[in-house]
Structures are given as structure tokens and as C-alpha cells.
TrEMBL record:
GO MF assignments: alpha-D-xyloside xylohydrolase; carbohydrate binding
Classification via InterPro entries: Alpha-glycosidase_related, Gal_mutarotase_sf_dom, GH, Glyco_hydro_31_C, Glyco_hydro_31_N_dom, Glyco_hydro_31_TIM, Glyco_hydro_b
Recorded catalytic activity of this chain's protein: Hydrolysis of terminal, non-reducing alpha-D-xylose residues with release of alpha-D-xylose
Organism name: Bifidobacterium tsurumiense
Stored Gene3D superfamilies: Glycosidases, glycosyl hydrolase (family 31), Golgi alpha-mannosidase II
Entry's family note: Belongs to the glycosyl hydrolase 31 family.
Official protein name in the record: alpha-D-xyloside xylohydrolase
GO biological process: carbohydrate metabolic process
Enzyme class: hydrolase
Source species, domain of life: Bacteria
EC number: 3.2.1.177
Keywords noted in UniProt: Glycosidase, Hydrolase
PANTHER family: GLYCOSIDASE FAMILY 31 (PTHR43053), MYOGENESIS-REGULATING GLYCOSIDASE (PTHR43053:SF4)
């Protein structure tokens, strides 16, 4: 949210009150509370009247995390949804010095200056990593009368900001306005399916705004030397997280918000989808499966998209009997071929679905303020939305999934979850609709993940999810949404996946060859290489089948070669998954995450590390040219060359390379001293 008019004025219709200084403070066990007048410092009793104060509470939920809560008016928040955080109540120290209060948790300290101006200085091992100073903490009233609490952190020379969820815009967030608000906008806009109010700075700190509601970030986009963030509420809590490097900060952040779990071994193989609106039946499915086997392309999972159910009845959780007269028999055939089965679902129930009347009668759907079921026609005619704040609705929904798993379904693609209404809405538990908009996806995916874990076992639980919020990393895997079939969209997908990994999520996938349109054979082969060198790999599309033989014989060869390569890498990927589970560091990671001291890696978003030891640079051009950078491995491997896993060619570190590659090769470089294929 931008409220300034240049450096000195405020936009018309806005009112801004800045917290001036700390007038008085209270120290309790584990908490420092500050009382800060708006406008100017208080010098006499008369100035305590009619001005208001900002109350600031400083606490620590875990070592190396300091949380600041800015409050205007205290409100009853007992019905507000909130993130499930892992609070350990660490020992903290609070010093009341002559010039400042110093609050310390672990190796992170917050120094709060006394005097005529507010100054919050964050130090890790005594070194400044972040700072919030003059005119940073504010209460803003917008033209509609809505109160916003706003805060700013200094943005230093050369400082770069990463993360904020799966974002398709520039990988470096400097200069961007980012609203944390889940939307179904495809991959070609500033909208995002997975918005996470957490960012990383190359100054070695992370910042997490603890609200499931809307957070507006201005990253050097209003005050160019500051990161501003605000919420349309009477209070805001944010946490600064310190660490030795970006990996350590991710570890601490996911200690707080949840670790990504391990995923089943079979999930690393190739997933093949029927695609979205394509026409298919049991015969089509078996032709695809047999076609892959006849061409010696290993297949691990077959996915049924929307049309396993009758049109206009999504979701009824029943197989279309005209196309699938014997679903149990068909699923048994797929299992006999060594395949797992995934089926598409969402949390919307069309009015034509046989489940609509049942859900409405029992109060299982989100309602309007007049008590009627909330409905609209965008997606399915007259559709309702399952209310996951109702425990009975959760059990009802899960029972439908249990019936499918009893037939032989192994996992679910949890589509949608972003278009959650906020106006004229009532939830079963009284939750604030504004705060539920983003949080809904957490309840939705948790309900599905939990029932899979219950029926199949925790070691077999996995989703293919599109929407997410904080904590959603505990319910993998997520994929990138509706991308187009062209190179710019392929590149924007990678940027988004790298940002997602910088936001606490360990696994990520995307629609190989693009969701919209029909890809060229060239793009199909290049995206196949990229897709099968991602943590999870799925062919999927909108109105076009994505089986390789439709794109030429060489596409078949490329699909076979890179699927076989992926399977050879499974032991290595499993080891990397254990690291992801233990630390929160993603399997697909931005170069800056692995090589934070190399300035050349800070901006790189067209290549990545797949685990510790594999550098991957997808080819994004029809002429097969790839431009990539090779960093120095450091340590006892400093100065040593990297080897291309596919060609054996050696590459010296610290250099840029521009080379052409055929469809059977690309830059897949092995870190010196390692051998991912030998595990």
C-alpha cells in the first residue's frame, strides 16, 4: 500500500500518524512493552491528551527470532484464524541501559534507542543485519476509513530481497509492490497462487509477518531505501529472524512454521496426466499407459484430471460411469502395471452435484450473512464452497476421499483454493472472512493430506497442490499453476519455483511443456529436460494431450532418457529430501542460497541447484543456446572444475559460459568431489 506523495507529502485522502519515540516501557518476564506517542515526543502531561499511542510488545517465540507486535486498539481476536506456530519460549535477556533497551534471544539482539526518536537495530553476533528508524512505524487511515498498521525496514546499498511466495515476477523483489493475497491469475502476472508473508535479505535476516490476512509489501517501491509492509488491521506482528546465512534462516523459519516432510520414493518418478479439458475414457487411459511402456518410458503415476467426473458435477467424487464403468477394475490394472493413481479434486461443489443438497442441508458450506449458502457461477454453476472450519464438514469431505482410496486411488491433486470470497460471508466458527481468504488453503490441504496419511500411512502421504499459505510446506507437493506453452512462461515458472523455495517450501513442480496451448516439439523437449530435473515431474496440459509421441520420435527419446536419468538420481534425491526435511532448505534451490558469498549468484534465476551437488541450467531458446555461470565450490574443492553429468565436459569455476546443446544434453554440472549417480 502506497500512501506517500513524494518524499514530503501524503496522498489525498490518507492520514498518517508516526510513532515518535518511546515514552515509557515495562519489562516483564520474556516481554518488553513500549508505549510510543504518535506525532511528537511527549514533554509534559498536557501532551498525553487526545493524541493516542502505539503499544509495542517485543517477545521471542524461538531462539534467534524476535517478534514485534504493533498495536493501536486492542480487539477481540478469539475468532481469528492464526498460523500454527511452534513456540518454544526460549530464555531471553532484557537490559535496561542508559541509552537503550537491549532484547536478546539466542544470538540475535534488538537494540531500542531511548531519546527523541525511535530506532530499532537488529544485531546478529553483534553485527547489524536490519534496522527500523525514523518515521517507520505508522498508523495509516485510507480514504475509505480503513486503519492500517505500517512498518519499514531499512534497505541498504546492494541489499536484495527474495521470497514472498511463488512469484512469477522478477526474482529480486526490489522495486516491486507485492500483495500477499492468493489469486487464480495464471503464471503471467503479478498475481500468485501461493503468497507467503516472509522474505529473505542477503544481509542475512528473514522477516515474517504473522497474519493470514492481506499484507502489502513495498520493496523499495515507495521509499526506495526501505522495505515497507502494512496490514489493514488494528495491529501487526512481525518477526525478524537472524542466522549465519540464508540456509540457517530458512531452518529457523521452518522450525517456527513447520518442516517439509519426507515424500514417498515413487513420487520422484514421472507423472502423466490426462490433461484438463481433453476427452478421455478408460480406453484412452490404458492406451497412454501402454504407449509409454511400449516406448520404454518409465511411468510412476497416472493422473486423472477433472473429467473423471461428469461435467457440471465437480465435485461429486463419483466416476463417470459412461467413461469408467468399472473404476475398481481399471485402478487394479494400473496398479498391476506398477503405477500409483492420482485424481483431481477441489473444494467446490457444483449445484448439480448430488452432494450439493446434502452439504447445504447439513451446514457444510460457507454461508452468506442471511444464512443462505454462498454460491456463484465462476467455475461450476451455482457452486458452493466447503467450510473447513466445521469439523463435521471436514469429516464428510474426508469420507468421500476415503471411499476413493478404498477403490484404489493413492493421492489427490488439490486444485483451486484461491478464489475464496470475503464479502457477505459467514464461517461456521465465526472466522473473519478477510483473514480466511489466504488461510482457507491451509485447512483445505491439511484435511486432504491428513486423510491420506491416515489411510495410506504417513510415509505415503502426498498431494499435488496449487494454492498455499504459511505452513503449507507440511503438505507437499505444490505445482506452479497455469503456465503458457512458450519459453518466457517456462522461465517465469522457474523464477516462481526459486522464490517459493526461498519461502520455506521444500518441493515444487510445474506443468511440463506448459498448461495453455499446444507446445512446439522444440519447447516440449526442452521443458521435458527441465521438468525431469525438478524435484517432481508431471506432464499436464489444458486442451492438448501431453504424451511424448504426439511431438515426434525425438521427443520420445528425450522423455525416455531424462526419465531414466531421474530414476537413477532417486537415491541422491532421497538424501536431499532428508536434508530438506531436517533443515527446510528446498531441493530446488536458488544459486544465492547455495553460494551466498558469490556476487554473481545473487541475481541468477535461469539456473539452480538440484540439491547440494547438481547445477542445472535449462535451455530457454530455440537455437539451443544456454548461458550459465559456474561458481567456485569452495572448501577443499576450491578452484576445481565441475563436470557435465551428460557429456563429461569440464568447466572451470568463476566463469560464464555460452554454449549450444542438442535435445539430449544441457548444462547439468556435478559439484567437484561428488557423484550423485553413485549413491
Amino acid at each position: 500500500m502506497k500512501f506517500l506523495n513524494g518524499g514530503w507529502l501524503v496522498k489525498d485522502g490518507y492520514d498518517v500518524k508516526y510513532a515518535a519515540n518511546v515514552y515509557t516501557a515495562n519489562i516483564e518476564e520474556g516481554k518488553l512493552t513500549l508505549f510510543c506517542p504518535f506525532g511528537v515526543p511527549i514533554h509534559n502531561a498536557g501532551q498525553t491528551l487526545d493524541g493516542g499511542i502505539m503499544t509495542i510488545e517485543v517477545t521471542s517465540p524461538r531462539p534467534d527470532i524476535i517478534t514485534t507486535r504493533l498495536v493501536n486498539f486492542e480487539e477481540d481476536r478469539s475468532h481469528d484464524p492464526e498460523f500454527n506456530l511452534n513456540i518454544s519460549n526460549p530464555e531471553v535477556s532484557i537490559e535496561d541501559g542508559e541509552d537503550a533497551w537491549v532484547f536478546t534471544s539466542g544470538r540475535l539482539s534488538l537494540r531500542i534507542a531511548k531519546g527523541e526518536s525511535i530506532d530499532f537495530q537488529y544485531l546478529y553476533d553483534g553485527k547489524e543485519i536490519a534496522r527500523s528508524g525514523w518515521r517507520a512505524k505508522a498508523l495509516v487511515t485510507d480514504p475509505e476509513g480503513q486503519i492500517h498498521v505500517s512498518e519499514q525496514m531499512n534497505l541498504g546499498v546492494g541489499e536484495k530481497i527474495y521470497g514472498l511466495g511463488e512469484r512469477f515476477t522478477n526474482f529480486i523483489k526490489n522495486g516491486q509492490t507485492v500483495d500477499i493475497w492468493n489469486e487464480d491469475g495464471g503464471t503471467g502476472t503479478e498475481q500468485a497462487y501461493k503468497n507467503i508473508p516472509f522474505y529473505l535479505s542477503n544481509r542475512n535476516y528473514g522477516l515474517f509477518v504473522n497474519t493470514p490476512g492481506k499484507v502489502s509489501f513495498e520493496i523499495g517501491s515507495e521509499k526506495v531505501s526501505r522495505v515497507q509492509f502494512s496490514v489493514p488491521e488494528q495491529e501487526m506482528s512481525y518477526s525478524v529472524i537472524g542466522g549465519e546465512d540464508l540456509k540457517a534462516i530458512l531452518n529457523t523459519y521452518t522450525d517456527l512454521t513447520g518442516k517439509p516432510p519426507l515424500v514417498p520414493d515413487w513420487s520422484y518418478g514421472l507423472w502423466l496426466s490426462t490433461s484438463f479439458t481433453t476427452d478421455y475414457d478408460e480406453n484412452t487411459v490404458m492406451q497412454f499407459v501402454d504407449g509409454m511402456a511400449e516406448r520404454n518410458i518409465p511411468l510412476s503415476v497416472f493422473h486423472f484430471d477433472c473429467r473423471w467426473m461428469k461435467e457440471l458435477e465437480w465435485c461429486n467424487f463419483e466416476w463417470d460411469e459412461d467413461k469408467f464403468p468399472d473404476p475398481e477394475g481399471m485402478l487394479a490394472k494400473l496398479h498391476e502395471r506398477g503405477l500409483k493413481v492420482c485424481v483431481w479434486i477441489n473444494s467446490y461443489i457444483g449445484q448439480k452435484s448430488p452432494l450439493f443438497k446434502e452439504g447445504a442441508a447439513k451446514g457444510y458450506f460457507i454461508k452468506r450473512t442471511n444464512g443462505q449458502v454462498w454460491q456463484w457461477d465462476k467455475w461450476q454453476a451455482g457452486m458452493a464452497i466447503v467450510d473447513f472450519t466445521n469439523p463435521e464438514a471436514v469429516r464428510w469431505y474426508q469420507d468421500k476421499l476415503k471411499a476413493l482410496m478404498a477403490q484404489g486411488v493413492d493421492c489427490f491433486k488439490t486444485d483451486f483454493g484461491e478464489r475464496i470470497p470475503v464479502d457477505d460471508v459467514v464461517y461456521y466458527d465465526g472466522s473473519d472472512p478477510q483473514l480466511m481468504h489466504n488461510y482457507y488453503t491451509y485447512l483445505y490441504n491439511k484435511a486432504v493430506y491428513d486423510v491420506i496419511a491416515e489411510v495410506k500411512g504417513e510415509d505415503q502421504a502426498i498431494l499435488f497442490a496449487r494454492s498455499a499459505t504459511v505452513g503449507g510446506q507440511q503438505f507437499p507437493v505444490h505445482w506452479g499453476g497455469d503456465c503458457s506453452s512458450n519459453y518466457p512462461s517456462m522461465a517465469e515458472s522457474l523464477r516462481a519455483g526459486l522464490s517459493f523455495g526461498m519461502s520455506g517450501f521444500g518441493y515444487w513442480s510445474h506443468d511440463i511443456a506448459g498448461f495453455e496451448d499446444k507446445p512446439s516439439p522444440d519447447l516440449y523437449k526442452r521443458w521435458t529436460q527441465f521438468g525431469l530435473l525438478s524435484s517432481h515431474s508431471r506432464y499436464h496440459g489444458s486442451n492438448e494431450y501431453k504424451v511424448p509421441w504426439l511431438y515426434g520420435e525425438e521427443a520420445v527419446e528425450v522423455a525416455r532418457e531424462f526419465t531414466e536419468l531421474k530414476l537413477k538420481l532417486v537415491p541422491y534425491l532421497k538424501r536431499m529430501s532428508e536434508e530438506t526435511h531436517a533443515t527446510g532448505v528446498p531441493m530446488m534451490r536458488a544459486m544465492v542460497l547455495e553460494f551466498p558469498k558469490d556476487p554473481a549468484c545473487e541475481d541468477l534465476d535461469t539456473q539452480y541447484m538440484l540439491g547440494d551437488d547438481l547445477l542445472v541450467a535449462p535451455v530457454f531458446s530455440e537455437d539451443g543456446t544456454a548461458r550459465f555461470y559456474v561458481p567456485d565450490a569452495g572448501g577443499d574443492q576450491a578452484g576445481k572444475s565441475w563436470k557435465n553429468l551428460l557429456t563429461g565436459e569440464m568447466y572451470e569455476p568463476g566463469k560464464w559460459y555460452t554454449e549450444q546443446f542438442d535435445y539430449h544434453t544441457l548444462p547439468v554440472l556435478v559439484r567437484p568431489g561428488s557423484d550423485p549417480l553413485a549413491e
